[in-house]
Design a protein that fits this description.
By secondary structure, the protein is of the alpha/beta class. It is built from ten helices and nine strands. 36% of the residues are buried.
Length: 277
Amino acid sequence: MRMTERSKSSPQPLDPEAYERLLQRVSFLHQWFQPTVEGLENIPREQGALIVTNHGHFGIDLPVLLRLILEGTGRIVRSLGDRVVFALPVFRDLAHSMGAIEGEPEATVQLLQDDQLVLVYPGGAKEALSGPEDAYRLQWESSHGFIRTALRAQKPIIPIAGLGNEELYVQVVSQDRVRQSGVGRFISQLLGDKYVMPIYMGLGALPFPTDLHYIIGEPIDLPHGPEAAEDPNIVAELHRRVTETTQRLIYEGLDQRERDAAAAGADTDAVARGARD
C-alpha cells in the first residue's frame, strides 16, 4: 500500500494477543511455504523503523513475514493496507487483527514516533498485479510518501527483499486484457483502473508451495531533520537510495538462489552417477 497525503486520523489500536493468535492460526502457511529469513539482527529490538519491501501476489506472504519477525525478534509489525481492504467489514476486521491500518501518513508517523515497527509496500497494487515481465522489479517511481513519513518521524528505513512471492501463482490473463472485458471496465469504474485484477492459476485456489525467503538489509538512517520532508530534492535523493538498495538486495538474493539451485542439481547428478557406477 502506498501512503497517501497527510491525514489527522489516529492509528487503530492493536490487541497484541489477537495479533499473535491470528498469526498462529495461519501457521499452515509456514508448513506450505517453508519460509526462511536472514538478517534478523537488522531489526531493532526497541526503536521504531519503517520497513519497505516488494509486493508479492495479493500480499499472501505478509503473515508469513510478520510471524518470522515476531518469532525471531519478539517485535510486532504494524502494516499498511490498501483502502480497498478496509472497505469491506470482513476484510477490515481481519486486517485490524493483523495490526494493519489504512495507509495514511499521519497515523504512520504516530506509530513510528511511538517506537513501533511499520511495514509498507511502496509499489502498492500496481506492483502486486503487474505482469511476469516485471517480476522482482520495484515499481516505486511515483511513491515518495514513505520517505516523507520516515523523515517526519525521524526513524530509519529497513529494506527487505522478498523472494518466491512472485511465483505463488501463474498469471494466465494479463491486467490489460481483463481491462478490455465488461467486468474489467466495471471494476475500473467502481474502484479505479489499478485495481483491475489479472487472472491467475494456482493449485486451485491455493498458491503453489513456493519456497519463500526474506533478506533483511541494514537500516538506512536518514541524515536530515523533519523539515527535509518538504524538500523535493532531498526526498528524491533518499527515494533513489532506498529503492536502489532494496532492488540490489532482491537481485543479489535471486543470484544466490540460482547458484544454490545449480549446486543442488550438480549434487543430484553426482549421486545419480555414483549409483550407476
